[in-house]
Design goal:
The complex is a heterodimer of chains A (390) and B (435).
Chain A (H helix, E strand, L loop, with lengths): L1 H17 L9 E8 L6 H20 L3 E3 L2 E11 L4 H14 L4 E3 L4 H13 L4 E3 L14 E3 L4 H16 L4 E6 L3 H18 L4 E7 L7 H9 L4 E3 L4 H13 L6 E3 L6 H7 L7 E4 L8 H14 L5 H19 L7 H14 L3 E3 L2 E5 L5 E2 L2 E6 L5 E7 L2
Parallel strand pairs in A: 1-3, 1-4, 4-5, 5-6, 7-8, 7-9, 9-10, 10-11
Antiparallel strand pairs in A: 2-3, 11-15, 12-13, 13-14, 15-16
Chain B lengths: L1 H10 L3 H8 L5 H25 L11 H6 L4 H22 L1 H11 L5 H20 L2 H27 L6 H20 L15 H27 L6 H19 L9 E2 L7 H20 L1 H11 L1 H6 L4 H27 L1 E2 L6 H14 L4 H17 L7 H15 L12 H5 L10
Antiparallel strand pairs in B: 1-2
Helix pairs in contact in B: 1-2, 3-5, 3-6, 3-7, 7-8, 8-12, 8-15, 8-16, 8-17, 9-10, 9-11, 9-15, 10-15, 12-13, 13-15, 16-17
Classes of the chains: A alpha/beta (390), B mainly alpha (435).
Chain lengths: 390, 435
C-alpha cells in the first residue's frame, strides 16, 4: 500500500514537471466556435468547423495574428451545442468563463443563437452569429452581431426580382408553419408582394408542418388559385419533394426559393426537376471570382464538396473577428477591456469586403449587405444571376 | 490495530471497502462541513494552487474536462482535486465525525425541522460557493437542479406507478409557456406582448405564482390524458401520452400570440440559484412525502397488481389520476424554472429528444426511488458537461454507460430505495462505541 502510494506520488511529480502549461504561459488569442456538431443539423456544424479550421490555417501560415506590432498565437475552441437552446447557452457560458475566449462565432440557427446571445451580451463578450435570421438575436444586444441579412430584407429582394424578371401579378406561397425561419420569411414575402401588386395578390398562402412529405392538397389549392409562380422558403429536403410534386400535379410556373435552398443537397435530392429555378441567397458558388472563388476551391480541395452558405458566412464572420481584433490596435491582456474593444471595433467596421459581399454593421449589429439571386443551371450548379442591394 | 482487522473484514478486503469502513461513522453533518471548507478553500486559494500545479485555471468540473482535453495535465488536475476536494472533505469529515455525531444525537430530541434546515443551509452554502467560482458552473448547477425535479416527477409515473408516460416534455412545455407568458406579459417590454403592465419590483413576488400557474396548467393538460387513458390498461398510456406530446408541440407552433415557432425570449432573470434550490427542495420534500404516504403505498400496490389492489379497497383509478396530475404539476413548475433559466423557449425545445433525455435520467438513476432520481439527473447532466472535450464520442460513452447500467442493474443505479430524512441525518456512531 505504501509502495503504491509512493509510486503514485512519483508519477504525479514527474507528470507535473513535464506538463507543458506549467512553465510558460504564451500569448494566445482564443476564439470560440459554438456550432451544432451533433443534433438536427450536423451538416451545418461541420461546415462551420471546417471554415474555422481553414481560417486557423491561414493565421498559422502568417505566423499569428498581428495586433499593434505584436504577434499573437490563435487558438480555436469548437464547442458543440447539440442544436438545443439550453446547451447553446451552456456552451456559450463555458467559452466565455472557462476558455476565456475573446470573441465567439456562432451559434448558427436562431433557436440557439437567441439564448447564447443572451449569455454573450450579459457577460460582455462579442458574438457573431453567421446564419441566424431572427431579429431577436441581435435586438438590444450591443455585443451580438450577425453575418447575414435579415428576412425583412430578403423578402422584398425576391418579390422585386420576380416582378422585374417575369412581371407576374399572382403569387402563391407554401411554407412550414412549425419552423420559425420559413414562417417568418413567408410572411415578409407576402407583405412585400402585396406592397407591389396590391392586396389580394398573394392568391394562395398555404402551410404544412415539419416532416410532412405529401403536399398534394396544398399544391392542388395553389394550382386552382391561378397563381403564376410559387415561393417556398423551405429546406433542401422539402424543396425536392415540393418541386417534384408540383410538377407532377401540373404546375407550370416557376418555383422560387430563399437562402435555405443553398445546400449542395438540394440538387442531389431534387435532380433535374430543379434545373432552371431561382432562389435568393448570400453567395453563388459557380462562377464566383476573386476571394470567393479562392475560398471555394480551397474548401473543395480539402473537404471534397462545395461549401454551402453556412461555411462561407462563418468564414466571413471569422474574418470580421480577425479584422476587429486587428483594429483594436493593442490588446491590454485584460480580457474584459479587450472584449469591449473588439466589440467597439466590430461596430465601427465599414465596407468589409467579405466573400459573401460587402458589409457594414447597423447600430443593431445587423449587416447591410447585398443578396444574390442564383439560378440552378442545367449542370445542377448554383449560378450567379443577379445581385440585389439595399 | 485489532480494530483494523475487524473493520476490514466487515467492509470487505478491497481498498474501496476499507475506505468505506474508515468513513462509516461520519455523519452527514460532518461531510457537509468538509464540503463547505473545500469550496471555501477553492474560492480563496484555488487560483494560486491552480497556478502552482500548472493548471491554466481552476478546473471547473472536478478536473474532468481539462484531463480529457490535455492528457498531459492529468497529474496536475488530480493533485488539485485531491488537495482541494479530497483531502479537506475526507480529513475534516473524519475529524468532525465525533462532534458531528454528538451534535446529531443532540438534535434527535429537537423538532425534525431544525436539523433539516441546518443541513439544507449547509448544502446551499456549498452549492453557492462552488458555483460562485464560475458562471458556467452556476448555469450547469441550476439546470441540474431543474433536471432533478423533472426526473423525480417522471419517476413518480414511470417508477412508482409503473406506467410508461411519454408526455413529460409536453407538461414541461405547458408550464414553461404559462409561466413565461405571465412574466413576459407583466414585466417585460416585448415585441410579443407589448409594454410591461406591472412595475418591475413586483416581479419576484409574482414569479412563484406564475410558476404555480404553470404547474396547474400542466396538471390540467394531464387531466386530458388521464381521463381516457386510465379507463384502459397496459401500454395505452404510452401511446396516448406520446400523442399528447405532439399535440402540445404543434399547439404552441400554431399559437401565434405565444410566438409560434419562434418562441418566447427575454424572460426576466428570476430563476437564480436560491430560487431554483428552494423549489427543488420543496419538490423533493413533497414528492417524498407523497410516495411514503398511504396514497404512495396504494400507488405501489396498483403497480404490482392492480386487481389485488382493487380487492384491497384501493381506489385504483383515483390513485392513478392523482399521481399523474401531481407529477405533471411538478413537471410544469420545472418547465417554468427552465424557461427562466435559459430565458428562451420555443416549441422545438420540448420534443422527443427531451423525452429521451428525461427517460435516460430516470432509468439510469433508478426506478421507484428519490435517491435514484437525484443520482440519475445529476450524473447524466454532469457527464454531459464533463465529457464535452470528447465531442462526438460523448454520444458513444453516455449510451454505453446506460447499456451497462441496464445490463448489470436493470432497474437503475439506486432503485427501490426509500429516502428517509431522519436516517440520512442521524448520528452514524455505532452502538458499541458509546460504551
Amino acid at each position: 500500500m505504501r509502495k503504491g502510494l509512493l509510486l503514485v506520488v512519483a508519477i504525479l511529480v514527474v507528470g507535473l514537471a513535464l506538463s507543458p502549461c506549467a512553465w510558460a504561459k504564451s500569448k494566445t488569442i482564443k476564439v470560440g466556435i459554438n456550432a451544432p456538431i451533433t443534433g438536427d443539423i450536423p451538416k451545418v456544424g461541420e461546415g462551420s468547423k471546417y471554415a474555422a479550421e481553414m481560417w486557423l490555417e491561414d493565421i498559422k501560415a502568417a505566423g499569428g495574428l498581428q495586433v499593434g506590432g505584436e504577434k499573437y498565437m490563435v487558438e480555436i475552441i469548437v464547442e458543440d451545442n447539440e442544436s438545443k437552446p439550453e446547451s447553446a447557452a451552456k456552451a456559450a457560458t463555458k467559452l466565455i468563463t472557462e476558455d476565456e475566449v475573446l470573441a465567439i462565432v456562432g451559434p448558427q440557427a436562431s433557436s440557439q443563437a437567441i439564448p447564447a446571445g443572451e449569455m454573450a451580451n450579459n457577460y460582455g463578450t462579442p458574438m457573431i452569429s453567421p446564419w441566424s435570421t431572427n431579429p431577436d438575436t441581435t435586438k438590444d444586444r450591443p455585443f451580438v452581431f450577425r453575418g447575414c441579412f435579415l428576412d425583412p430584407f430578403q423578402g422584398p429582394v425576391v418579390a422585386n426580382f420576380i416582378k422585374d424578371e417575369f412581371g407576374f401579378k399572382k403569387a402563391a406561397v407554401l411554407y412550414d408553419i412549425a419552423s420559425d425561419y420559413p414562417k417568418g420569411l413567408a410572411e415578409v414575402f407576402k407583405e412585400a408582394w402585396e406592397n407591389i401588386n396590391g392586396p389580394g395578390s398573394v392568391v394562395a398562402f398555404e402551410s404544412f408542418t415539419t416532416k410532412d412529405a405529401d403536399f398534394s392538397s396544398q399544391l392542388t389549392n395553389i394550382i386552382s388559385s391561378g397563381a403564376q409562380f410559387l415561393f417556398t422558403p423551405q429546406y433542401y429536403n422539402e424543396v425536392a419533394l415540393i418541386v417534384q410534386q408540383a410538377q407532377e400535379l401540373g404546375f407550370k410556373g416557376p418555383i422560387v426559393g430563399s437562402d435555405s435552398w443553398g445546400s449542395a443537397e438540394t440538387v442531389k435530392l431534387c435532380g433535374e426537376a430543379c434545373y432552371g429555378l431561382f432562389f435568393s441567397t448570400h453567395y453563388a458558388a459557380a462562377g464566383a471570382t476573386g476571394a470567393t472563388k479562392e475560398f471555394i476551391e480551397r474548401y473543395e480541395k480539402k473537404y471534397g464538396y462545395t461549401p454551402d452558405d453556412v461555411g462561407a458566412l462563418t468564414w466571413d464572420a471569422l474574418r470580421l473577428v480577425q479584422k476587429a481584433i486587428e483594429d483594436t490596435g493593442k490588446l491590454t491582456g485584460n480580457l474584459k477591456n479587450d472584449r469591449v474593444a473588439v466589440k467597439d471595433a466590430l461596430a465601427k467596421i465599414k465596407e468589409f469586403d467579405g466573400i459573401t459581399g460587402k458589409m457594414t454593421f447597423t447600430p443593431e449589429g445587423d449587416p447591410i449587405k447585398c443578396a444574390v439571386v442564383v439560378r440552378i443551371s442545367e449542370k445542377g450548379e448554383f449560378e450567379f444571376y443577379k445581385s440585389a442591394c439595399p | 490495530m485489532a480494530n483494523d482487522t475487524s473493520v476490514s473484514a466487515k467492509g470487505g478486503s478491497t481498498r474501496f471497502g476499507r475506505l468505506r469502513a474508515y468513513v462509516a461513522d461520519v455523519p452527514l453533518l460532518a461531510w457537509l462541513l468538509g464540503g463547505l471548507v473545500a469550496v471555501l478553500l477553492e474560492q480563496t486559494v484555488g487560483d494560486t494552487l491552480a497556478d502552482l500545479v500548472g493548471l491554466p485555471k481552476v478546473p471547473v468540473l472536478f478536473g474532468c474536462m481539462i484531463m480529457l482535453k490535455e492528457p498531459t495535465l492529468i497529474p496536475s488536475a488530480l493533485i488539485f482535486v485531491a488537495l482541494v476536494y479530497g483531502a479537506p472533505i475526507l480529513l475534516l469529515g473524519k475529524l468532525m465525525a465525533r462532534p458531528g455525531n454528538w451534535m446529531a444525537d443532540r438534535m434527535t430530541s429537537w423538532p425534525i425541522a431544525i436539523p433539516v434546515v441546518l443541513h439544507l443551509v449547509l448544502l446551499y452554502a456549498i452549492m453557492h460557493f462552488w458555483a460562485d467560482v464560475s458562471l458556467y458552473r452556476m448555469l450547469t448547477l441550476r439546470l441540474t437542479l431543474i433536471a432533478i425535479m423533472l426526473t423525480l416527477s417522471l419517476n413518480l409515473i414511470n417508477g412508482y406507478m409503473g406506467e410508461f408516460s411519454c408526455s413529460h416534455p409536453g407538461f414541461m412545455a405547458l408550464g414553461a409557456y404559462a409561466a413565461s407568458a405571465v412574466m413576459v406579459l407583466f414585466f417585460v417590454n416585448d415585441r410579443l406582448f407589448g409594454e410591461a403592465l406591472l412595475p418591475e419590483y413586483l416581479g419576484p413576488f409574482i414569479f412563484p405564482a406564475a410558476l404555480v400557474l404553470g404547474g396547474i396548467v400542466a396538471a390540467l393538460g394531464a387531466l386530458l390524458i388521464a381521463i381516457p387513458s386510465f379507463k384502459t390498461r397496459g401500454d395505452y398510456l404510452a401511446i396516448i401520452s406520446l400523442a399528447f406530446l405532439f399535440i402540445v408541440k404543434s399547439l404552441f407552433e400554431n399559437l401565434q400570440f405565444l410566438g409560434g415557432a419562434r418562441g418566447i425570449k427575454g424572460q426576466p432573470d428570476y430563476a437564480d440559484l436560491p430560487t431554483v434550490f428552494c423549489w427543488t427542495v420543496l419538490c423533493i420534500w413533497i414528492i417524498n412525502n407523497f410516495v411514503r404516504s398511504t396514497m404512495g403505498k396504494a400507488l405501489n400496490a396498483v403497480r404490482d397488481d392492480e386487481m389485488a389492489a382493487e380487492a384491497m379497497t384501493v381506489n385504483t383509478r383515483f390513485t392513478k389520476m392523482v399521481a399523474f396530475l401531481f407529477a405533471a404539476f411538478w413537471a410544469g413548475i420545472a418547465g417554468g424554472l427552465f424557461a427562466h433559466t435559459v430565458r428562451f423557449i420555443n416549441p422545438g425545445t420540448f420534443d422527443l429528444k427531451r423525452l429521451a433525455e428525461l427517460l435516460a435520467m430516470v432509468y439510469f438513476g433508478g426506478l421507484n426511488s428519490v435517491y435514484g432520481s437525484i443520482v440519475g439527473a445529476v450524473s447524466i447532466n454532469l457527464l454531459g458537461e464533463m465529457l464535452r472535450p470528447l465531442a462526438l464520442y460523448k454520444w458513444i460513452v453516455i449510451p454505453l454507460l446506460l447499456i451497462l447500467v441496464m445490463i448489470y442493474r436493470p432497474t437503475g443505479l439506486v432503485a427501490f430505495k426509500e429516502f428517509d430524512v431522519r436516517k440520512l441525518i442521524q448520528s452514524k456512531r455505532k452502538p458499541e462505541d458509546e460504551v
